[in-house]
Amino acid sequence: MTKKDVAMEEETPDQVVARASADVLRVVLADDHARMRGRIREALESGGCTVSAEAATAQEAVELAEEHRPDVVLLDIHMPGNGIWAAREIAGRLPGTPVVMLTQSAEEDDLFDSLRAGAAGYLLKDMDPRELPDALRGVLAGDGAMSPRMLTRVMDEFRGPTKRRFGRRSPAAARLSPREWEIMHLLSAGRSTDEVARELFVSPTTVRVHVSAVLKKLRVKDRESALRLLRGE
């Protein structure tokens, strides 16, 4: 280990921010699609960042993060080895190096699993790539980096608005996942299966699968019976 590596391990968060502000922001980029990595690299370099290394698998991301000690690691989720696993490993091995997920997945399970793994941000690939450099600098300054749609999911999880709008909380109903509550609330508001799918950016089949799971949990035969139970009717 070099003297520089030792010094970096001993840096405080304020020193990390100061160094990143003074120097070009160094990023390890992990995504299994080479063309996507190229587009992300171009956006980062146009915004004053430098990509220290690129990885195509979760294992490579962990190894390259340890080797290069970047300011930020930018991870895809659905790549060989699982980006959430990589986030957990990097957060444990390099606690001073923030990890930000950059993914196509708007699924709540991926969002909350990433945050539990230690990710400091969760960005969707449909964002304007020119905003990436500032988002990563914000993370180093102590801000969160999250696409607005996903921030709404986090706020809903803690506020629990869909759960409170139904009148009764039976032991069976309490087992519904946040996504199941969200779908049942939208259905109770008169949305069709296709409308719910469009609003949540999932397929109609996914909505039906979640509804089937709700029926099993509530031990009812149809959607209307489930909604009446959740409303306390």
UniProtKB/TrEMBL annotation:
According to the UniProt entry, which residues carry 4-aspartylphosphate? D76
Give start and end of each Response regulatory domain.
Answer: 26-140
Is the Lipid metabolism keyword given for this protein? no
Residue ranges occupied by any HTH luxR-type domain in the UniProt entry: 169-233
SMART domains tied to this protein: HTH_LUXR (SM00421), REC (SM00448)
Annotated keywords = DNA-binding, Phosphoprotein
- Output the superkingdom of the source species: Bacteria
The record's InterPro entries line, in alphabetical order, gives:
CheY-like_superfamily, NreC/VraR/RcsB-like_REC, Sig_transdc_resp-reg_C-effctor, Sig_transdc_resp-reg_receiver, Tscrpt_reg_LuxR_C, WalR-like
Pfam families for the chain = GerE (PF00196), Response_reg (PF00072)
**PANTHER family attached here?**
TWO-COMPONENT RESPONSE REGULATOR
What name does the UniProt record give this protein? Response regulator transcription factor
